[in-house]
Amino acid sequence: MSVEDLVGLAVRRLLVVVAALAVVAVGGMLLAAQAVSRVTSEVTPAAEAHQEVLQDLTDLESAVGAWARSGDAAALEDYREAAARLPGHERDVADFAASEPDLQPLLASELQAGQRWLDQYADLRAAAPGGPETFDPARFALGQDLFSRYRAEHAVTARAFDDLTAQARTRAWWLVGATIAATLLLTALAGLVVTRARRDLRRDLSRPLQDLETVVQDMAAGRLEVRAGDAGTREVRAVAAALNELADAQARARAVEAHIHDELRELDTAREDFVSNVSHELRTPLTTISGYLEMVAEEFEDAMGPRHQRMLEATTRNVARLRLLIDDLLTLSRAEARSTSLEQGDVRLLLRDVLTDVAITAAGRDLRVEVEEPEDPLWVLMDRAMLARAFLNVIGNAVKFSRPGSVVTVAASAHEAMVRVTVSDSGIGIPADEVDQLGGRFFRASNAVDNEIAGTGLGLRIVQTIVDKHGGDVRITSEEGRGTTVVVRLPERSARQGIGTPGPTLAQ
């Protein structure tokens, strides 16, 4: 049996039970709702209207009695208002009784008794003069007798209304109870269907899949000798066969992967050794060449012509550029390869040291460096030397690419558990289509190259590598001709954790 057949059988059984459950539940609740609606919208309003009829007649009886005793015109006005309300309430009760054969004769007898009281006493007494001097004991006794008969008829009808209300409520509760019982029965049947389907699925699908999962976990743990069984549905058996083939292929691939991994490790080690050795071998002759160039410049300072002077200056400049490139390559190699032991430090103090280092260069280019920092320390976990080099590169670039007489702003702050160091300049900026390329090895903006501004193209790469080691990030915005803003963000560390406490070690 396939998974589709197995699941389809279980779903069909469950659908039949669910459909029956839905029919019973919906049908039962509709009938119960109708019964409840009859109580709330028909029986109860009619019973209330019936009570209003009694109230109207009672108001009439009180008003006519007051007229008879006092002759007050206000009592006669109350009588007329109650008489105006009475027909409407009687009509509401009569409309309901029209569909209740058992209630019709009772209501008819009650209404006749009320009408007799009105015709034989109340209306006649209201039409006659009022006041103590018009009191007639015989007429008063007749009115009391007729009203008592009406009240007796009303009590019989009221009990009939109470019986109707009780019957309607009983029917509603019976329908609700029957619906709940049928729903529970069908729910239990659905539970049996689900239990049986679960048993079949567990036997034919779940357990074989669990066995496959165990085999996969064993293979992932390196036990490549395990193989899957052939139990379960057709699809599970097909997956087991494919998994066994994959295990065979994986065993072969592991051997190839281990060989490639060893070769990559050797290549990485060779690369680091190459950079270190080449840099060392280049720095030694460069130092010698630089020394000889200085000796030549001093010895022939007044004897060289302009042409030879330019040649000497170009050679000196390129030696310095090559030395800077070697230093940047070594710094980047160390930043990428070394593990970093972090300790807690105040970013403000580190920035002050860096600003001291660039102060002479800034003054020489007629630049003003403005610093904005809070009074409280800005604690982060840092490798002081590496992070100082990152800030030196960022601030040094701002000084290098700014125009003479402009301002470089360095702002430090804390926001949302991050320490932000923002370096802004109003220098040459970076072309918009080249901003995304920043941070690439040896990349230099085209306008920097056109303006013959010295650089290796590794400075920002070094910054990003160092900041990444510290768990932060670097964000750059720039507009050509208007300046550049670099934001370095580092995770803030609470001062309560102690100053100088060794932090974790981050490795690439």
From TrEMBL:
Location in or out of the cell: Cell membrane
Transmembrane segments: 172-194
Domain annotation HAMP: ranges: 203-255
One function term, GO molecular function aspect: ATP binding
Pfam family, one: HAMP
Recorded catalytic activity of this chain's protein: ATP + protein L-histidine = ADP + protein N-phospho-L-histidine
Keyword hit for Ribosomal protein: no
UniProt entry keywords in alphabetical sequence: ATP-binding, Coiled coil, Kinase, Membrane, Nucleotide-binding, Phosphoprotein, Transferase, Transmembrane, Transmembrane helix, Two-component regulatory system
Keyword Membrane among UniProt keywords: yes
Enzyme nomenclature, EC number: 2.7.13.3
PANTHER family, per database record: HISTIDINE KINASE 1, TWO-COMPONENT HISTIDINE KINASE
Name of the protein in question: histidine kinase
Species annotation: Nocardioides kribbensis
